[in-house]
TrEMBL record, chain A:
This is FAD-dependent oxidoreductase domain-containing protein 1. It is found in: Mitochondrion inner membrane. Required for the assembly of the mitochondrial membrane respiratory chain NADH dehydrogenase (Complex I). Involved in mid-late stages of complex I assembly. The gene is foxred1. It comes from the Eukaryota. One of its GO terms (cellular component) is mitochondrial inner membrane. One of its GO terms (biological process) is mitochondrial respiratory chain complex I assembly. It comes from Stegastes partitus (bicolor damselfish). Its cofactor is FAD.
UniProtKB/TrEMBL annotation, chain B:
Keywords: Signal. This is Distal membrane-arm assembly complex protein 2. Required for the assembly of the mitochondrial NADH:ubiquinone oxidoreductase complex (complex I). Involved in the assembly of the distal region of complex I. Interacts with incompletely assembled mitochondrial NADH:ubiquinone oxidoreductase complex (complex I). Residues 1-31 form the signal peptide. The lineage of its organism: Eukaryota, Metazoa, Chordata, Craniata, Vertebrata. Pfam families: LRR_6 (PF13516). Belongs to the ATP synthase subunit s family.
Length: 510, 258
C-alpha cells in the first residue's frame, strides 16, 4: 500500500516536473543556458522570473518606443554627454590657433597638476570658417614694429623645437611641413625708403634679412621681372610657410593631454555684475565682471551656464561681436563704453593656380609692392596667390564665396607682369577666409579690457595671427598667471592705445 | 539610491564619450597605416606612464635630460683662450674631422673621442673642409662653425640631428661653400632643401637616401632647376618616374599638398 502511495505521489509530481522543464526550455531559448542552470538550482524561481520577464519586456518596449521617435537616441532624462562642466576657472572663447595656444601655455605654466580648470569653447568643430585653417600659413620677420619682429622670432624658435613643447608621449611627432623658402618683399620708388628703415629695425631685432638691388635681385631670382622694383628685401632664415592645420592640431592635442577641457558649443551670452566706479577724471564708469558664460550646444536647444573667474576672448574675426554682447561700444559717444572693440571680419580670397613653367622650388613667399602675394604650394607646379582689396571695395562678409572676377582684374595682371611665366597659369581652385581685421591699426590687441575686468583679449591680428600664436599664447598666459608680461613686453598692444587714440601702425601689412 | 547610481553611470558615459571624441579627432587627420606594435618593455612603460604620474614624470625627465645633454654638447667650448680655435675644438669634441686650407693633413678624434693637440699649431689658418658625418651636430652647433668663412666642403652624412632648420642656417656659408653632403640624414624634408637656394656657389650636392623625401625623382629635378651649376648626386632612390607610375604619384602628391 505504501509503495502504491509512493508511486502515486511520484506520478502526481511528474507532470509538474515536465511542465517546469518545458518552461525552462523556453526560457533557455530566450535567455541562454545560464537561466536554465539557475532555475534548476533555486527552489522557487518562478515568481522572480515573472518579474524579470516583465522587466525585460518593458525595457524592450521602451527601447522600441524611443527608437521609433525621430532622433533615435532621445531619452527624456539623459543629459547631453558633451555639455561643459558647470564650473571652471578659465573659459577660452574660440578654439582657433590663438585660443588653443593660450590653453596650452596656461597648462604649461601652472605650478601644480590640475591647478586650473580650463575650458576651450569652439562653435565650429569642422573649422569651416576659422581663419586659422583658411590662412596662407606664412611666417616672416619682415615687419616694421620691433614688437612684431620679436613675436615672430619667439614663435619661430618655438616652431623649431616644436616637438620639445608639443610632443605627446607615444604619439607621432609633430611635422609642421615647414618650407624654409623665405619672404621676398619688393619696393617701388615710394616704398624704398620705408623698406630701408624697416631693414634696420629688423637687423637690430636680430632677424636675418638682406637688402637686394634690382640687379642682385635678378641674379638671385632670374625668373623675376624687375620693372618698377627699386629695392627688395629677402629673409634668409626663419621665414617661409607651414601647415596651419598641423599647428592647430598639435596645440590642441597637447593641451587636451595636459587636461584642458574641449567643448563644442557657442558662447551666446555673458552674464555679469556691474559696479560703478569713479575714474580719475571724475567720469562714472560701469565696470563689469563676467560671472557666467552661457554655452549653447550645437544643433540643440540645450545650454549650460559655465561659472568662471576669467574669460579669454580669442574668437578671432568674431571677437567684436562678443564684446558687443556686453554693451561695449554702445555707450555714449565720448565715454569709454562708447568705444567698440575695433575688430571685424574682412573677407580675403586665396586662389590656387597651376603653372608648370613657374619658378618651382626656387619660389619664396613673394610680396609685390602692389600688395599681391604668391607662394609655391606643394611640388606639382601649384601656387597660391591673393591680394587685399582696397578699403572701399571690401567684399560682403556674410558668406565665404569667392569672386573669380577679382582674380582676373586685380591679381593676375600683377602676377603676369612680375613673373612672365605666369601668363599661362590656370586657376584650379580658390577659397576665402576672414581676416580678424583690426580697423584701428591692423595689430593685435592683447590684454584686459578696461571695462570688463576679467576679460582678456587676444585678437585683431589682421593677417599675421597664425605666425604669432605661439608667442601670443605665452604672453597671455603670463598676463593671467603672473599678472604682467615676463618674456616679451607686449604692453604696447593693450586696449589702452585705442582709448588714447594712439595707433601702432604696422607698415608691412599684407 | 538610484539617483546617485544613474549620475555615476552618466558620469562614466560622459568620460568615455569624451575620450572617444578626443581620440577620434586625432586619428582622422593622418590616414597612416597603424604603427607596428611596440616592444614589450615599451608597452609596459606606456602602461605605467598612463597610470602613474610619477612614472610619466620620470620618462619626461629622461627625455629632457637627453635634450639638455645634446644642447650642451653642441654649445661648444666657451672659455675665451680657445676662442680662436672654437670650431676646431667643437669639431673634434663631437668626433668629427677637419682639414686646414692649403694643407692635406686631416685632424680627427679617435674612436674613444681623444685627439692630439697639435692642431693648435695652425691656429690662425682657416678651415677648408669639415667632416661631421655621423655626429650629433645640430642647429645650435652650427654656430661654432659660422666663423669659418673659407669653408668649401661640409660633410654631414648620416647626422641624426641635421634637420630643415639646420639647412636654413647654412646661408652663413653662402659665399664659400662648394660641396655639401647631406645624404642619409633622417630628418631632412623637401621643405628644408628649398633653403639651399641661398648657396648659389654650390658645385656638388649629395642628397642620397633621405628617408623623408617622398618622390625623389621630382625633387631632384626641382633641385637641379634651382641650382643649375650644381652637380647633384641622388642614389638610393627609385628615380625611374615612368616605371613607378611617377606621373600619377606626382599628381597625387600635388593634390595632397593642396
Ligand atoms: C586668407 C588668409 C590668409 C592668411 N595668411 C596668414 C599668414 O600667411 N600668416 C599668418 O600668420 N596669418 C595669416 N592669416 C591670419 C590668421 O589666419 C589669423 O590671424 C589667425 O588664424 C587668428 O587665429 P584665431 O585663433 O584668433 O582665429 P580663428 O582661427 O578664426 O579662431 C577663432 C575661433 O573662434 C570661434 N568662435 C567665434 N565666436 C565664437 C563664439 N561665440 N563661441 C564659440 N566659438 C566662437 C570660431 O568658430 C573660430 O574657430 C591669414 C588669414 C586669412 C583669412
Amino acid at each position: 500500500m505504501s509503495a502504491w502511495r509512493r508511486l502515486q505521489v511520484k506520478l502526481r509530481t511528474a507532470p509538474g516536473f515536465f511542465a517546469s522543464i518545458q518552461l525552462t526550455r523556453r526560457h533557455a531559448r530566450q535567455y541562454g543556458p545560464l537561466t536554465l542552470c539557475r532555475s534548476l538550482s533555486t527552489g522557487s524561481p518562478l515568481q522572480n522570473k515573472y518579474f524579470k520577464d516583465l522587466k525585460a519586456q518593458l525595457a524592450g518596449f521602451r527601447k522600441k518606443a524611443s527608437d521609433a521617435l525621430p532622433g533615435s537616441s532621445w531619452t527624456p532624462l539623459l543629459v547631453s554627454p558633451n555639455l561643459p562642466p558647470a564650473r571652471v576657472d578659465i573659459v577660452i572663447i574660440g578654439g582657433g590657433v590663438v585660443g588653443w595656444s593660450i590653453a596650452y601655455w596656461l597648462k604649461q605654466k601652472e605650478m601644480i597638476r590640475e591647478g586650473a580648470r580650463i575650458l576651450v569653447v569652439e562653435k565650429d568643430p569642422m573649422y569651416s570658417q576659422s581663419s586659422t585653417v583658411l590662412s596662407a600659413g606664412g611666417i616672416r620677420q619682415q615687419f616694421s614694429l620691433p614688437e612684431n619682429i620679436h613675436l615672430s622670432l619667439a614663435s619661430v624658435n618655438f616652431m623649431r623645437k616644436i616637438n620639445d613643447y608639443l610632443g605627446v608621449m607615444n604619439e607621432d611627432p609633430v611635422d609642421l611641413q615647414f618650407n624654409q623658402s623665405g619672404y621676398l618683399f619688393l619696393a617701388s620708388e615710394q616704398g624704398a625708403q620705408i623698406m630701408e628703415e624697416n631693414y634696420i629695425t629688423q637687423r637690430n631685432a636680430g632677424a636675418h634679412v638682406s637688402l637686394l638691388s634690382p640687379t642682385q635681385l635678378k641674379q638671385k631670382f632670374p625668373w623675376i621681372n624687375t620693372d618698377g622694383v627699386v629695392l627688395a628685401s629677402y629673409g634668409l632664415e626663419n621665414e617661409g610657410w607651414f601647415d596651419p592645420w598641423t599647428l592647430l592640431n598639435a596645440f590642441k592635442r597637447k593641451a587636451i593631454s595636459m587636461g584642458v577641457i574641449p567643448c563644442h558649443g557657442e558662447v551666446t551670452d555673458l552674464k555679469c555684475t556691474t559696479k560703478m566706479l569713479r575714474s580719475d577724471s571724475d567720469e562714472i564708469m560701469a565696470v563689469k565682471r563676467i560671472n557666467y558664460v552661457k554655452v549653447q550646444m550645437l544643433n540643440s536647444l540645450e545650454y549650460q551656464p559655465v561659472e568662471c573667474s576669467i574669460v579669454v576672448n580669442a574668437a578671432g574675426a568674431f571677437s567684436g561681436k562678443l564684446t558687443k554682447m556686453l554693451g561695449i561700444g554702445s555707450g555714449p559717444k565720448d565715454s569709454i563704453a562708447g568705444i567698440p572693440l575695433p575688430v571685424e571680419p574682412r573677407k580675403r580670397y586665396v586662389y590656387v593656380v597651376n603653372c608648370p613653367d613657374g619658378p618651382g622650388l626656387d619660389t619664396p613667399f613673394l610680396i609685390d609692392y602692389s600688395g599681391v602675394y604668391f607662394r609655391r604650394e606643394g611640388l606639382g607646379g601649384n601656387y597660391i596667390a591673393g591680394v587685399s582689396p582696397e578699403e572701399a571695395e571690401e567684399p560682403d562678409t556674410n558668406n565665404l564665396e569667392v569672386d573669380h572676377q577679382f582674380f582676373e582684374e586685380k591679381v593676375w595682371p600683377v602676377l603676369a607682369h612680375r613673373v612672365p611665366a605666369f601668363e599661362k597659369l590656370k586657376v584650379t581652385s580658390a577659397w576665402a577666409g576672414f581676416y580678424d581685421y583690426n580697423t584701428f591699426d591692423q595689430n593685435g590687441i592683447i590684454g584686459v579690457h578696461p571695462l570688463i575686468n576679467n576679460m582678456y583679449l587676444a585678437t585683431g591680428f589682421s593677417g599675421h595671427g597664425l605666425q604669432h600664436s605661439p608667442a601670443v599664447g605665452r604672453a597671455v598666459a603670463e598676463l593671467i598667471l603672473d599678472g604682467n608680461f615676463k618674456t616679451l613686453d607686449l604692453s604696447s598692444f593693450s586696449f589702452g592705445r585705442i582709448l588714447s587714440q594712439e595707433p601702432m601702425l604696422e607698415r608691412n601689412i599684407v | 539610491m538610484s539617483a546617485p547610481l544613474t549620475s555615476l553611470h552618466r558620469c562614466c558615459q560622459r568620460s568615455a564619450l569624451l575620450l572617444l571624441v578626443a581620440r577620434r579627432q586625432w586619428c582622422s587627420s593622418s590616414a597612416s597605416p597603424p604603427p607596428p606594435p611596440l616592444p614589450r618593455h615599451r608597452r609596459l612603460l606606456l602602461f605605467l606612464t598612463q597610470r602613474y604620474y610619477d612614472i610619466e614624470m620620470l620618462v619626461n625627465w629622461k627625455s629632457q635630460l637627453k635634450r639638455k645633454w645634446l644642447e650642451w654638447k653642441n654649445i661648444g667650448p666657451r672659455s675665451s683662450w680657445r676662442s680662436e680655435v672654437t670650431s676646431q675644438y667643437y669639431v673634434l669634441r663631437l668626433r668629427g674631422g677637419f682639414r686646414y686650407a692649403g694643407q692635406s693633413e686631416w685632424f680627427r678624434a679617435d674612436h674613444r673621442g681623444r685627439f692630439r693637440q697639435d692642431f693648435l699649431k695652425h691656429k690662425g689658418t682657416p678651415l677648408e673642409e669639415v667632416d661631421m658625418s655621423h655626429t650629433d651636430i645640430n642647429f645650435t652647433g652650427l654656430r661654432n662653425l659660422a666663423s669659418q668663412q673659407s669653408l668649401r666642403t661640409l660633410k654631414l652624412r648620416g647626422c641624426p640631428y641635421v634637420d630643415d632648420w639646420f639647412l636654413s642656417r647654412l646661408h652663413v656659408f653662402e659665399d664659400c661653400l662648394e660641396e655639401l653632403d647631406i645624404s642619409h640624414c633622417p630628418q631632412i624634408t623637401t621643405g628644408g632643401l628649398a633653403a639651399l637656394r641661398n648657396l648659389k656657389g654650390l658645385k656638388r650636392l649629395d642628397v642620397s637616401s633621405l628617408p623623408r623625401i617622398e618622390i625623389a625623382g621630382l625633387v631632384v629635378i626641382l633641385l637641379e632647376e634651382m641650382l643649375p651649376q650644381c652637380q647633384i648626386t641622388a642614389t638610393g632612390y627609385n628615380l625611374d618616374l615612368s616605371q613607378a607610375g611617377g606621373e600619377k604619384e606626382v599628381e597625387e602628391l600635388s593634390q595632397r599638398q593642396r
